[in-house]
Amino acid sequence: MNRFVTQWAVLVGLPIATFLLSSPVLAQKATATDQDELIQEWVADSSNSLIEVYRWFHSHPELSHHEKETAKRLADLLTKAGYEVSSNIGGHGIVAILKNGHGPTVMFRTDLDALPVTEATELVYASQKKVTLEDGTASGVMHACGHDIHMTNVVGVARFMAEHKELWHGTLMIIGQPAEEKGEGAKMMLDDKLFERFPKPDYALALHVDPTMPTGTVGYRSGYAMANVDSVDIIVKGKGGHGAYPQMTIDPIVQAAQLIVDLQTIVSREVAPSDPAVITVGAIHGGTKHNVIGDTCHLQLTVRSYGDKVRQQLLDAIKRKADATAESFRAEKPEITVKEGTPSLFNDEKLTWSVVKTLNESLGKDNVVPVDPSMGGEDFSRYGLAGVPIFMFRLGSVDAKRLARFEQLGQKPPSLHSPLFYPDAERCLETGVTASTTALLYLFDRKPDHE
């Protein structure tokens, strides 16, 4: 920034950004570089307070549908920042609104919930929380998927936007969404008339930490970025009896084993190699003891795809293979239950490329990188299906030196959902808040596509 401009602003007692934008002559000199410097200075000055927020969220995790205290904490922070906050939207969801004159409505979403994972990071602020799960087993609770970073990021974004209203006009809508880990929270909020009770946004943004990317970087993918997620339960039916006399039975475990092998040919031989797809048998339960052949065997599958056509092709093929295997064993047809999970996440192409362009200018092209599509699921996709252009980008979360050390040791860094995963929070948040505010300021300066 021009040193004379900075010194004169200080002399007359005005914030630099306000001075630049209020002066008819100097406003013309206020460039994107000035804005970037303003954001970077603010983020650096706010780092300590944001780390305190992050450590509270990290050490107070709550499972899906139980995010009561998490939601209250986030609501209190956003209320203090000047937002009008509504709670208990679709469960423990919150909506925070900041109106700032005429302009677009832009939504930024964070998720609230943690996972039933016992933390093993040995951080001084590690979660010590224990719960009893629905099946009666004991478990720790941990933010092993980075939602603590996501929440802290929106707190930083919310504070910056509230403190710099001279830089933008419109309505900022912050969403704190429950039950993302179960793929249910977005639907719950939409079913609770989210976009009827509150403004329907012109654009919606979100980010997600990435344990394979170094801090200081963000990743993007235009179009399909994450997968359809479906769960399939198959009850293979047989005829029980003594293990010494298999000829008197129809063995459901052997039948299930044959089916597991047959299922693998669906992706490898029926789906085009250009169409990503996954069928994984995650669990098999059958039998009671060594010498007893049971009546049934239960298979649990996760099925991943992108488009609707391949999604239906996979589900149809699973049923066909299961029925055919049963017939070959002269067994009763299996019982098949399909539970549709999250739909595939499609990043709006026009929105993605326009935001990427402004991030290139802010962070530098070397720090804004294309990433491969993922077969993971994300219910942020549902806001896109509700008619809102969406873009979720990835946030590098592990220091480059730490990643290099893993590579030197021939190891992979801990993945999301690992009890050993932790982000290098300070640098991660610096980049997250910088990228998020830069994207928001750009979108508030842009006329919505429908106009």
Give the gist of this structure.
The protein has 451 residues and is α+β, with helices and mostly antiparallel strands. 39% of the residues lie in helices and 24% in strands. Residues 228-327 form the Peptidase M20 dimerisation domain.
What does this structure look like?
The protein has helices at residues 3-12, 16-22, 32-59, 68-80, 147-163, 185-191, 194-197, 252-269, 308-328, 349-363, 381-385, 400-408, 425-444; strands at 84-89, 93-100, 105-111, 130-132, 138-140, 170-177, 203-214, 218-220, 223-226, 228-237, 241-242, 278-286, 292-293, 296-305, 335-340, 345-347, 368-370, 390-398. It is α+β, with helices and mostly antiparallel strands and 451 residues long. The model is unreliable at 1-14 and 16-30 (pLDDT under 50). Residues 228-327 form the Peptidase M20 dimerisation domain. It comes from Blastopirellula marina. Its cofactor is Mn(2+).
| Residue runs with pLDDT of under 50 for 5 or more positions | 1-14, 16-30
Helix-strand category: alpha+beta
Sheet with most strands: strand arrangement: 1-2-6-3-7-18-8-17
How big a fraction of the residues is strand? 15-25%
Keywords:
18 strands, 8-stranded mixed β-sheet, Aminopeptidase, Alpha-Beta Plaits, 2 domains, single chain, 24% strand, alpha+beta, 4-stranded antiparallel β-sheet, 13 helices, 451 residues, disordered N terminus
